[in-house]
Amino acid sequence: MVKLTIDSKVVEVPEGTTILEAAKSAQIKIPTLCHHPDLPPTAACGICIVKVGNRMVRSCCTPVAEGMEVITRDPDIIEARRTVLKLTLSKHPNECLTCLKNDTCELRKLSADFGIRDTEFANITPSKEEMPLDDSTKSIVLDPRKCILCGRCVEVCQNVQNVWALSMLKRGISTHISPAADNKLGDSPCIKCGQCTAHCPTGALTERDDTQYVWSLLQDPEKYCVVQIAPAVRVAIGEAFGYKPGEITTGKIYAALRRLGFDAVFDTNFGADVTIMEEGSEFIERFVNGKGALPLITSCCPAWVDYMEKYFSDMIPHFSSCKSPHEIVGALAKTYYADKVNIPTEKMRVISIMPCTAKKFEILRSEEMFSSGFQDVDVSLTTRELARMIKQAGIDFVNLPEEEADSPLGAYTGAGTVFGFSGGVMEAALRTVHAIVTGKEMPEDALEVKPILGLDKGIKEMTMDLAGKEVRIAVAHGIGHVQALLEKVREAEQKGEEPPYHFIEVMACQGGCVGGGGQPLGVTDEIRKARMEGLMKDDRGSKQRCSHLNPDVKKLYDEFLGKPLSERSHHLLHTSYQKRELYKK
Amino acid sequence: MADDKVKIQEDTRKMLVKWKTKRGSLIMALHEIQGAFGYVPWDSMEVVAEELKIPMAQIYSVLTFYNHFKLTAPGKVVISICDGTACHIKGGQSVIEAFEKELGVPAGTTTEDGLFYIQIVRCLGCCGLAPVVVVNGKTYGRVTPLDAPKIVAEWRETMAKEGA
Ligand code: SF4
Ligand code: SF4
Ligand code: SF4
Ligand code: FES
Ligand code: FES
After folding, report:
1. Which of A556, A465, A583, A585 lies closest to A278, judged by CA?
2. CA of A156 to the centre of ligand 3 (A)
3. Which residues of B are less than 8 Å from A181 in CB distance?
4. Residue nearest ligand 2's atom 6 by CA
5. Which of A79, A384, A441, B55 would bridge A164 by S-S if both were Cys, CB 3.0 to 4.6 A apart?
6. What spacing in Å lies between the alpha carbon of A510 and ligand 3's midpoint?
C-alpha cells in the first residue's frame, strides 16, 4: 500500500493506482475526457491535470507514490482546465440541441459543469461539406466534426477488439479518425460491434438512428408491426429510466411496446430456445455421430461472424450454420405466425430491439436473411433507440403495469435468457445436449456451468463429461481474445492433431451482449456484471430452464418444422458464410 | 493494372525478406518501398501487412504521420533517366538537367499539373544506347539535352489525345 495526501486528505491505495483512481476513492472527482475505465490511458486531452508539488501532471496516467502531496483544485488548475475545454470547444460544432448523444455527451457535461459561456477563441469547426459524415455502414455513424481526438475509439477498436478498423491518421491540425486510406467504414475491416460508439465521449460515433422509420411503420394502418426484444435489453433499458443496472424490466418493456403501437409483442428469447434446438442438434451430429468438423463454433453474434469471414475464413466449416435468435423469430413470424393469424406477409414488418449495432447490418447480410420470401427482420433498433422512443411517446415507464408477451413466439425458458451474457449460449446448449444425449435432464444444481461464466477472463475453458466422453469447451468474449483461440485450432488442424476444443462460444463484446455496443452508455465492468446477474436471476426464476422443455418450442416443431435440422428448419433457420475482403480498395 | 499489382506485390515481397526477421523495421521497410516505386502503393501495403503481420490501420497511420511518405503515384508520365555508369559517362547528367529545366521541377518530384514525374534510375540494361531515357515503357536511346523538349512535347500530345 502507498500512503499519500490528496487535497490534504490522507489516502492509502495499492501500489500502481493512478492519482485519478486514488482521488476517486477519496470522493474527489477529477474531470476527464480521454480516460475510460475499460481502456489504458491515452493521456490525450490534458483536462485531468493536478499539481504534485509545483508540477502539473495528468492524473489519469500518473501512478501514486509514497508521501506524494497532490492538489486537485486551485485557481491555476481550474484555469488550465477551462483553457483545455475552450480550445476543445473551438474545434467543435455548437450542435448540442440536435446531437444524438446530447443527453450523455461528456464534453457537453463538462462544459456545463465549468460554466463555459463565451470564449475568446474563434470557432474553426469545418463545415459539413468540408468534413462529411461517414454513414456507410448500416450500423454506426462517424461524424468527424464532433471528434475531440481522445483516441478511445482507436484504443477499443485496435487493442480491445483487435479489429483495426479505426486509426488516427495524419498529425497536427490535420489529425483525424478514419479507417486506413480514408476508406469509409463500410469498406474497412469494421465488424459493426459498436464498441467505439459505446466508448466515444461525444456524438462523433453513434448508432445509426432508425427510429423515424419505425415511427412511420407504426403510424401506417396498412402495416402489421411485430416486435421482439433480445435477452440483454431487459436488464439494461431500465438504466435510461433511473433503474439500477441489472434490474429486470421485461413486463414493463412488453407494456411499453404495446403502447407504442406494436401489433404483436414477441421475445427473442423464444428464438434463442429454437437456436439451441438447432445448434445443439448440430453439435450432437458432429460430436456424437462424427459428421462435420470439430470444434463447432457458435454463430449468434453477427459482429463475430463478420470478423470470422474477414480474418479467419478458413474456419467457415467450423461455424454453426444456425441463424441468430432474432433472425429466427423474424423468419418464423413471417411464415408460421403469419399463417396462424392470417396476415398477408407483405403487410407484416418485424422490428428487433437489440443491445447491438451489428444486428442492423446482419438483417441484410446475405440472401438467407430473406428466407420467408421477404426481408425476415425489417429494422433492428438498439436498446438506446427504444429508450428514446418510449420517452418521446411520453410513456411513464417506471409506473407501467407489467404485461406478458404474445404467443406463439413469446414464451421463453431460462436457457433463452442466458444468451445475453458470455458463457450463456454454451450453458444453454449444454443443458439441452446433455438431455438429448443421455436421455436424462441435468440435475438442477448442474444447470449453471460456473467455469464458463463471469467476466474475469477473456477466454474460459473447461471439460465436461457427456455420456462417458470428454467434451472440451472454450468461451471467448471481447473479440480481441479470439485470435489466440482460433490460432490454436488452426495449428492443430494443420498438424493433423486432435482439435484442442470441441465446442467454442464467441461473443464480440466484453461480457457478451449485456455489454453490447447498442446498450445504454457509460458501461463499466461493474455494470456488465450487474446486468449479467440480472439475467441469471431471470433464468433461476423461470419455470423451465432448458430450451427443449419450452412447450411453445415443442409445438412449433410438432406443427411446423418437424424436427431440428429438418429441411424446413434448414431453409428458414440456417445460413451460410463466405470469405470477405478487409478493404474494398 | 492487374499485372502492375502482381509485379508490385512480387517486388515488395522480395524487398521485405530482410525486414521480416527484424522487429520494429516498419519505417525502414516503407522507406525502401518508396525508394523503389517513388511512392508507397496500396498494393505494397497489403504485402507489408501480410508479411510483417502489422494491421493496415497501423501502417497507414505511420505513413500519414510522416510527410516524407507519398501515397499516390507520381505523375502519369514517368520519365526514367538512366544514370548508370555507361549513361553517366556519355552525358546522362546533362540529360537529367535538361528534363528538369524543361519541366521546371527537380528529379524525384511530380510537375504541378501531376502529369510528369522524373526519376533517376540505375542501369536500364541497354548501355549500347547510352544515354538512355525510358518514358512509360518507351525507350529513347542516345538522348541529348536537345531531345528533352521534343520528348516532353510528344508525351504532352499523347496524353492530351488520351484525354488525360
Ligand atoms: S464498430 Fe467495432 S469494429 Fe467497427 S469501428 Fe467501431 S469498434 Fe471498430
Ligand atoms: S471519435 Fe469519439 S472516441 Fe474516437 S477519438 Fe473522436 S471523440 Fe474520441
Ligand atoms: S456480443 Fe452481442 S451485442 Fe455484441 S456484437 Fe455480438 S451479438 Fe451484438
Ligand atoms: S483524462 Fe487524463 S489526459 Fe485526458
Ligand atoms: S548505364 Fe544506362 S542503360 Fe546501362
Report:
1. A556
2. 15
3. 42, 56, 60, 71
4. A147
5. B55
6. 9
Q: Which of A89, A124, A154 is the last residue of a domain?
A: A89
Examine the residue annotation and report whether A427 is marked as an active-site residue of this protein: no
CA of residue B90 to ligand 5 center, whole Å: 10
Measured CA to CA in angstroms, residue A66 lies from A2, A55, A212, A318, A501 at distances of 5, 16, 56, 53, 47
B61 vs A: CB within 8 A? yes
Tell me how crowded residue B79 is: count the other CB atoms within 10 A of its CB: 25
CB A512 within 8 A of CB A424: yes
B72: contact with A, CB 8 A cutoff? no
Confidence check: pLDDT of A276 > 80: yes
pLDDT tops 50 at residue B35: yes
CA-to-CA distance for B29 and B19, rounded, in angstroms? 6
Checking if the pLDDT of A354 tops 90, the result is yes
| A442 and A303, same domain (yes or no) | yes
User: Do both A159 and A196 map to the same domain?
Assistant: yes
Q: Measured in angstroms, how far is the CA atom of residue A257 from the centroid of ligand 3? A: 22
Match 497511420 to its residue by C-alpha cell. B61
Average pLDDT value for residue range A404-420: 97
Residue A11: which CATH number?
A: 3.10.20.740
Provide, as residue numbers in chain B, all residues whose Cβ is less than 8 Å from the Cβ of A165.
57
B54 in the same domain as B130: no
CATH of the domain at B151: 3.40.30.10
**Mean pLDDT along residues A254-266:** 98
Going along A398-546, which residue ranges are E strands?
459-466, 469-477, 503-507
Residue among A476, A465, A461, A410 at smallest CA distance from A442: A465
- Flag if A167 and B71 touch (Cβ within 8 Å): no
For residue range A96-143, list pLDDT tens digits in order.
Answer: 999 999 999 999 999 999 999 988 898 999 999 999 999 999 999 999
Task: Note the ipTM here.
Answer: 0.82
**Is pLDDT at B1 greater than 50 in this prediction?**
no
Residue A513 appears among annotated catalytic residues: yes
- Asked if B61 lies within 8 A of A167 by C-beta distance, the reply is yes
Q: Are residues A410 and A456 in the same domain?
A: yes
Which domain range does residue B46 map to? 2-65
Q: What residues of chain B lie within 8 A of the CB of A171, using their CB?
A: 64-65
pLDDT digits (tens, 9 = 90+) for B70-97: 887 766 788 999 998 999 999 999 999 9
Cα–Cα distance for residue pair A328/A583, rounded to 1 Å: 30
B79 φ, ψ to 5°? -100, 110
Which of the following is catalytic: A101, A138, A323, A359?
Answer: A359
Q: How confident is the model at residue B125 (pLDDT cuts 50, 70, 90)?
A: confident
Q: Report the chain B residue with the minimal C-alpha distance to residue A581.
A: B46
Mutation site, A153, A156, A160, A169, interface B, largest B CB count within 10 A = A169
Q: What is the pLDDT of residue B163?
A: 61
Rounded average pLDDT over A370-376: 97
